Amino acid sequence: MNKNTLSWILAVTITLGAAAYQRLTGPTYPLRGKVALADRELTYKLPRSHGGEDDQEVKIDDPGTKAFLIYRRYKTQDDFTRIEMKPQNQELLAALPHQPPAGKLEYNILIEDRGTLVPAVAKESVVIRFKGAVPPWVLIPHIFFMFSAMLLSNRAGIEALFKGQSMRNYAIRTTAALFLGGMILGPCVQKYAFGEFWTGIPWGWDLTDNKTLVGMIGWFGALFIVTLKPRFARSALITAALILLGVYSIPHSMKGSELDYSKGKIVTGQ
User: Fold this and answer.
1) Residues 212-247: pLDDT tens digits?
2) pLDDT tens digit sequence for 242-252
3) pTM score, two decimals?
4) Which residues lie closer than 8 Å to 244 by C-beta, 6 or more apart?
5) Is position 180 within any domain?
6) How many C-beta atoms lie closer than 10 Å to residue 157's C-beta?
7) Is the backbone of residue 4 left (phi > 0), alpha (psi -120 to 50) or beta?
8) Sign of CA dihedral 157, 158, 162, 166
9) How buried is residue 84: exposed, middle or buried, by Cβ count under 10 Å (0-12/13-18/19+)?
10) Alpha helix locations (H) across the chain?
11) Are residues 260 and 164 in the same domain?
12) Is 157 in the same domain as 111?
């Protein structure tokens, strides 16, 4: 196996690992778990993000059970609304009402077990955030360029580690992909989802925007050094690659936009 092939294998492995970690640990990934009843065990998959103008369906795979969906607006003193879940296609189904962009609901499922209502999630309620629908022609290129930027960043760092001859080439390609995905298409996604192009510094503390900004600064700096101070190229690329790897390891959508129901406006960094 030659050095170039090995470098790409390492870059792909690191990228896929970081992407999987970010996806599985993020606050928008469906919450999975099990609830033990007296005579059986139920598994659940509860949504924590919803895009579009419709309500969000919540279901469990046990039509013979009696269960209730309870919910209220997040961070309010509202009373919980309780809805009995109805059997449909071998499932029990109920729906959470649509909320404005960045609006959140906290909810749970209460399952009847020998006369007692058992919560599906024992320790706390599940929180779901609503957002506007993002058209595929914006979302798909955004995901493609962000994934490409991470892959190229890892490849650039490995190239520098192995003292390769293509460091500047990888620096240019990484910076371009990150700029297109994070600084051009990213704000478009944000606008469709939450009504604002940019909610990071200096206008807010949205972690997704701010971590993209940190990664972008790191790679602009690396490209500058590679071009004008080539003797520091290896250190610059390795540093920028590690910065972006750290950025991508932060769970997606943490401390993002959130609707403050008491003020009727969206706040960031929550």
Assistant:
1) 999 999 999 999 999 998 889 999 999 999 999 998
2) 999 998 888 77
3) 0.86
4) 149, 150, 153, 174, 178, 215, 218, 219
5) yes
6) 28
7) alpha
8) negative
9) exposed
10) 3-25, 136-161, 167-178, 186-194, 207-228, 233-249
11) yes
12) no
